[in-house]
Amino acid sequence: MSERRSFGQRRGGFRGRSGGSRFPPKPVEIGKEYDVDIQETSRRGEGIARIQGLVTFIPNTKPGDHVKIKITRISRRFAEAEVVGKGEAEAEKEEE
């Protein structure tokens, strides 16, 4: 006769009592600054950069821009940021 198991055991276990998360930890933190390259434009006209695969929306940017951004919001699948300056490579070009 087979041994009866609870639902969690039969399905590979639960992710802990707190419920766990299907989404891995985010590669960014609110308030931190990052140098990014804008790769494309969203439907709303915002620039899109990817930080370790995480889609990040940045208003007032366009593809080809290299900017320094500050993360303002993190969602399950994306982040939002604001421009705080030019990226390091752009700043060096202007100094020359």
What does this structure look like?
By secondary structure, this protein is mainly β. It has a single domain (27-95), classed as Nucleic acid-binding proteins (OB fold (Dihydrolipoamide Acetyltransferase, E2P), Beta Barrel), CATH 2.40.50.140. 12% of the residues lie in helices and 36% in strands. The chain is built from two helices and six strands, in the order αββββββα. A six-stranded mixed sheet has the order 1-5-6-4-3-2.
Sheet with the most strands: spatial strand order:
1-5-6-4-3-2
How many domains? The number is: 1
Query: Can you summarize the main beta sheet?
Result: 6 strands, mixed
> Which stretches are low in confidence, meaning pLDDT under 50 for 5 or more residues running?
none
By CATH reckoning, the class would read Mainly Beta
Span of the ends, CA to CA? 80 Å
Annotation, overall tally of beta strands: 6
Portion in strands: 35-45%
SSE string, helices as H and strands as E: HEEEEEEH
CATH homologous superfamily assignment: Nucleic acid-binding proteins
The average pLDDT is 83
Which CATH architecture would you pick?
Beta Barrel
Protein structure class:
mainly beta
The helix content, as a percent range, equals 10-25%
Rg over CA atoms, rounded to whole Å, is: 20 Å
Shape: elongated
Oligomeric state: single chain
The CATH topology comes to OB fold (Dihydrolipoamide Acetyltransferase, E2P)
Please, how many helices? 2
